[in-house]
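Let's do one together. I've listed all components of the complex below, 766 residues spread over two lines.
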Amino acid sequence: MSDANVDPRKLGRPPPPPERQTPFLELDADRLERNLLAMQRRADGARVCLRPHIKTHKSLRIARRQIALGASGVTASKPSEAQVFVEGGIASVTLAYPVVRSAAIDYLLEVGRARGADLNFIAADWAGVAALAEAGLRHGLRLSVFLKVDVGLGRVGVKPDAEDAVHLAAALSDGRDLSMAGLLAHAGHAYGASDISAIREIATKEAADLTRLKARLEAAGIAVPCVSVGSTPTCLGAPIPPGVDEIRPGNYAFLDRTAMRLGLCEPDDLTLSVVATVVARNSRYAIIDAGSKALSSDQGPHGTSLSGFGAVVIAERAPEAAWQIEKMSEEHGFVPCALGELPVGSRLRIFPNHSCATVACFDSYGPEDADPSSRIDARGCFA
Amino acid sequence: MSDANVDPRKLGRPPPPPERQTPFLELDADRLERNLLAMQRRADGARVCLRPHIKTHKSLRIARRQIALGASGVTASKPSEAQVFVEGGIASVTLAYPVVRSAAIDYLLEVGRARGADLNFIAADWAGVAALAEAGLRHGLRLSVFLKVDVGLGRVGVKPDAEDAVHLAAALSDGRDLSMAGLLAHAGHAYGASDISAIREIATKEAADLTRLKARLEAAGIAVPCVSVGSTPTCLGAPIPPGVDEIRPGNYAFLDRTAMRLGLCEPDDLTLSVVATVVARNSRYAIIDAGSKALSSDQGPHGTSLSGFGAVVIAERAPEAAWQIEKMSEEHGFVPCALGELPVGSRLRIFPNHSCATVACFDSYGPEDADPSSRIDARGCFA
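Okay, and this is what the predicted structure of the assembly comes out as:
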C-alpha cells in the first residue's frame, strides 16, 4: 500500500546516526525553526499574541525558543504539565483545562507564587467558578480566569448564546476572588474539516461567536480584556480574524500527516519523524520495530481518522517512494509492500498521523537520552 | 451509550483515595494475585513451564511475584526492556523479538554476563541467525536461540512447513556460535477470534504445526529441547495441548475488555483500571480527564477492535450502570450519557480495552509515585 498523499522526495532528511538503536524520535531543527518563526510572523502580522500550546512538544527547550521568538507565554493542558513549564522558568502560563476540584491546582499555585509566574485558568460552569474561587481564597490570590466557550467541538464550554454565559462572566468579574481574563475557545472540530474552505468557515464563525458574546457581556458591564482562540487548522488555514487578541496553536511546531491532509503544510514542513528498522519480512508485509506503544494508535486528533498509522520512507537515502503502516501490534508495525522492497535491516522514517500523540509515548527526542535539553519534560503529566 | 457487555455490579472496587489527582492507574491486588496464581496452576497442571511476558505490566515487583509463584523466568519484547528485568535480578529472560543488528543486544549481553543471567533469543530468518552469531562471537558467548515460527499471525517467523525451517534450525544447532533452544510461536491472531471455539481451534492448530515441524527437525537430526507458545487467549481459552513445554502469556495478569469480549474472564477478574474525574458536561457527553494520552487509542491488541475505548463505572460507590468512552481528545474522554448522569466532579473508574497499551502510557501504578515498587520500570523501553 503506497501513500498516495505524500511526495516522498519532499520527506528526505539526512541519514540518521547509524549507531543509535531504533525506534527513536527525530526532530528536523531547520523545519522546527521555520514552523515556529512562520507562526510568530502570522501572529505579529495580525497584531495578536501567540501563546503556543506545549502539549505537542512538552519540551522546555522548545518552549523557551517560542518565547525567544516572541510568544507571550505558553498554554498547557493539565496542572502537572503547567507546573513543569513554570518550574522551567516560563513566566506566563495559561492552564486551558477545566479545574473542578480546588486541590488540583494547589501545587501549581504554590510553584507559581514561588516563581513569580503569571497564571491564567479557565472556567466553563459553576463547578469551575467555585473550585477556582476556593483555591484563590485558600492561597490568598485573585485568580485570572477565562470563560471557556464551546464554539462547536461539543466538549468543554458554555455555548456562546447561552443565558448562563453572562452570569458566569459576571461571577468571574466580581473583582474579589477572581478576575475576568477574557473569552477562550478551541475550534478542535476544524480537524474534522474536509478542506481549507471548511476550516475558514469554522474560524470565521468562531470569531463571530466570540465577538457577539463579548458585545453581550460589555453591554452587561463586563469587561472582556482578551479573546483567545487557537487550533493549528484555524490558525494556519485561515486568516486570523478581527476581534481576536491571542492565538494558542500547538501542533504547528511539528505538524503531521493530519496537517497535510487538511492542506495546512507541505511534506517538507513535517518536523517530527520516528526512525525504525525492518525486523522481519513476509509475503505481504515489512515488519518494523515501532508499534502502537511507540507511535500511538491515534489516527488523528479528536477522534478524526486518516488511513493507516503513518507515512513510511527509506531513511538512509533520498526517498523515491512512500508506504503506509496498515496495522500495528504493541511493538511491531505492518507495512504492506512488494517482496524485494524494504528488506530486513532497512532503516525507515515514519511521519505520524498525529505528532502530539507520538511524542507523548517517548521520554526523549534524542539523539542522546542523557542530554537534558532533549528530554520530553512533561511526558506522562496527565494529572 | 451504556456498555451492554459488562455487569457493572461485578466491576465494583473500594473507593479510590480521595486526595489523589486524577487520572491514575489502580491495580486490584487481590485480583492480580488470583490471576497470577490461576495461570501458574494451569501451567503446573499441564506440566509446562510458565514464562510470563512482562510487556503487560513492565514491573519488577510483579515479575518477582510471578517468579515466586513458580514462573521459570520472563519474556520481554525489546532489548532495553529485557535489560531492565535482568538488572532487576530476574535470572532467566527470553527476548522474544527478532534481532537483526548484532549491536542491538550488546548492552543486554554485557548486563546478562555481569548478572549471570540466562538469556534466550529468537531468530526468524538468515539475517537474525547472522546477527546473533556475530553478537555471540564478539562477546565470546554461545547464544541460546529459538526458531520463531509463524503459526498464523502473519507477522514474524518461518512458516511451519517451509523448507527453510530445517536449514535455519540446522544453523542454530551448529554447536559453535549458537545453540538451538527450541521452537517458539505466538498465536496473536487468537485475539481476532469470534469465540472460544475459534480460540481452541487456533491453539490446537498451533500445537499441531509445531509438533509436525519438531518431528521434521528431529528426523533431520536436530534436537528440539523446548516448544514454547503463548498468548493469553490460547492459554486461558483452551486446554494446554500435548507437545507444548512452555507458555508465555502476558495479558492474563491484568486482563481487559478484550479478554471479556473473548469470554476469557469475568468483569471481577479485571485487575487494571484508570480513575478519572468528570470535568465538564454537555447535553450529550460527560467529559472526563483521561484521553488518548493516558488510555491509548488502542481498541484491542494486534489491530483488533472493540466498540469504544473503555468501560466506565462510578468509582465512589457500588456501580449499578456502565457506560463506554465513545471518542477521545488527547486529554479528554467523551462518555455519552443522559443529563443528570455523571455530574461534574464525579470520579469514574475505566476498564480499558487493552490494558497493555494503557499501562505503557503511565510512569507508575501509584498510589504514590515516590514508591519505587509501584514504578512501571520498563516504560518507554522501545529500543
